[in-house]
Amino acid sequence: MLPLCFQSEMLGRALRAVSTAAAPGAAGGGVAARRPGHGGHGGHGHAQQQRRHRSSVGGQLLPADEDPPKILITGSLGQLGLEMARFLRQMYGQENVLMSDIIKPTKSAAAEGPYIFADILDFKGLQEIVVSHRIDWLIHFSALLSAVGEQNVPLAVRVNIEGVHNVIELAKQYKLRLFVPSTIGSFGPDSPRNPTPNVTVQRPRTIYGVSKVHAELLGEYYHHRFGLDFRCLRFPGVISSDPPGGGTTDYAVFMFFEALRTGKFECYLRPDTRLPMMHISDCLRSLWEFLTAPPELLKRRVYNVTAMSFTPEELAEELRKYVPNLEVTYRPDSRQLIADSWPQVFDDSEARADWGWQHKCSLQQLVETMVKEVAPQVQREKSTKAC
Ligand SMILES: NC(=O)C1=CN([C@@H]2O[C@H](COP(=O)(O)OP(=O)(O)OC[C@H]3O[C@@H](n4cnc5c(N)ncnc54)[C@H](O)[C@@H]3O)[C@@H](O)[C@H]2O)C=CC1
Ligand SMILES: CC(=O)[C@H](N)C(=O)O
After folding, report:
1. How many CA atoms lie within 13 A of 124 on its CB side?
2. Is 322 one of the annotated active-site residues of the chain?
3. Per residue in 164-197, pLDDT tens?
4. Is residue 230 within a helix (H) or strand (E), and if so which, with residue range?
5. Which ligand 1 atom lies nearest to the CA of residue 237?
């Protein structure tokens, strides 16, 4: 679940969206919901659009006469997908956000709104979904992350590379707006690590990174060659109280659970391994603000975004404010090699300058929020065991 402060912020935004859209003559922002790829800002000058965009801190609201977009999320039962669906359902309505994955949803996830089986490797199946559900926007989350990708390279090639071929071709055929996340993992040991700028050398050493560079380049190519409305953010490690899917940055989630369960945590990275990170609330908001940003503001189709950088040692120190006796030991494994090739500090100044990206959650707030969310989960586990 998202923190309460964030839920009420989203609710407030959704209500503002409704009231702006309902106001007679309201100057709603231009989500080209039914015609992705079109700006939807006819008659307004660039500077005026920019001012309006900035004053709404990114995300654009729907004008009264536009239907909400129909959105398909692939791989939506992973760490980011269900929270993204909740976020977008608050904005655009439960029925307009279709979750999909190849795994069976829990009863509670299925109860939250429409869910459908979709294998990213089945192009015809995807075509059928897009046509029958009249999809406008596609958010493509299916992937094998950095650590699990190294455990099964052939599968990672299929899901991360063939899967991207399928969604890009699908988006071209049906003129969908397409969001594909990339990652700090798209950089490698030859890239500058502190800071890592938006455009620099990218020679990643994991199949995950290679597949993400491939997605970035293919998406940019389809944008320039065919006008595809391709949008891609490179995320840092995302921290939430949902289980992560097998990445290198996952330690930062595990530390909260183990600290609150046992007061002890064995970390698979060295104490001084600095990596860029962000709370899921910032991740979801960046995605939405970028997805709805007027195309005129986008000088490129792939942007770095981040909120902070920290080491395991620094995270543990902050967490000791809540778990004073927390003991962290360090036993680096193969994930250390991956982390050592990734950015330490991510330069997202281009996203901040072009479409107004601003993070809100600091390390202190992230730790406070995570403790508030994880503590009741751990408490429930303990009482279930006691029964
Ligand atoms: N979580 C993070 O820290 C970051 C995530 N990202 C990107 O965001 C996206 C979502 O990440 P997470 O939710 O963390 O990943 P996750 O590993 O938690 O979820 C991925 C989902 O893809 C699904 N999937 C696997 N094979 C599939 C197939 N053949 N067809 C359809 N779905 C399939 C899985 O069942 C799973 O639910 C990924 O593309 C990832 O690269 C980028 C940077 C950071
Ligand atoms: C940063 C990512 O892309 C992901 N969390 C991973 O560690 O693989």
Report:
1. 0
2. no
3. 999 999 999 999 999 999 999 999 999 999 999 9
4. strand 229-235
5. 3
Q: What's the 3-state SS for 143-204? A: CCCHHHHHHCHHHHHHHHHHHHHHHHHHHHHHCCEEECCEEHHHCCCCCCCCCECCCCCCCC
| ipTM surpasses 0.90 | yes
Three-state secondary structure of 88-106 = HHHHHCHHHEEEEECCCCC
Q: Is 105 in the pocket of ligand 1 (CB under 6 A)?
A: no
- Indicate the helix (H) or strand (E) that contains 225: helix 207-226
Question: For ligand 2, is residue 160 a contact (CB within 6 Å)?
Answer: no
378 CA to centre of own chain: 25
Q: What is the pTM of this model?
A: 0.88
Please indicate whether residue 206, judged by its CB atom, sits closer than 6 Å to ligand 1.
no
Residue among 142, 232, 348 to mutate when testing ligand 1 (max atoms within 8 A of CB): 142
- CA 249 to ligand 2 center in whole angstroms: 6
